[in-house]
Design a protein that fits this description.
The protein has 93 residues and is an all-alpha fold. Helix content is 65%, strand content 0%. Helix 1 crosses helix 3 and helix 1 crosses helix 4. It comes from Streptomyces rhizosphaericus.
């Protein structure tokens, strides 16, 4: 359950997971990954967005002890491998 008054970071977490998958598939730099939520100037970012984004990314990319992030990283890595296989099979057909 989110803390009272805590911002809803669901969209942020989805974008960060998307960035993780993008960087895994392309082996690209995280700073070059598309971030549609950051680019959308029509919607204000929640308070604390940038701090939470950096913390979430750090846990997702580097945590070895927080089971939630380790499991999430593995699931996203498996998904990225599946997507890469799909992309490769379609581009050679």
């Amino acid at each position: 359950m989110p803390r009272r008054g805590a911002p809803d970071l669901g969209r942020l977490k989805c974008q960060t997971a998307s960035v993780f998958v993008w960087t895994t598939i392309t082996q690209g730099d995280v700073l070059l990954a598309p971030r549609p939520l950051d680019a959308d100037v029509s919607r204000p970012r929640p308070v604390g967005w940038s701090n939470q984004r950096n913390q979430f990314w750090d846990h997702l990319a580097h945590s070895k002890h927080l089971k939630h992030y380790v499991d999430l990283r593995q699931a996203l890595t498996d998904y990225a491998a599946h997507l890469a296989q799909e992309i490769d099979s379609r581009s050679t057909a």
